Amino acid sequence: MKIAGDCKDFGNTAFKNGELSKALEKYQKGIRYLNEDPDIDNEPADTKTKLEALRVTLNSNAALMNIKLSAWNDCIRAADNALAVASISDKDKAKALYRKGFALVRVKDEDGALEALGEAKKISPEDAAITAELAAVKKAASARLAKEKAAYKKFFQ
Question: 10, 65, 69, 112: which is deepest, by most CB within 10 A?
Answer without folding.
Answer: 65
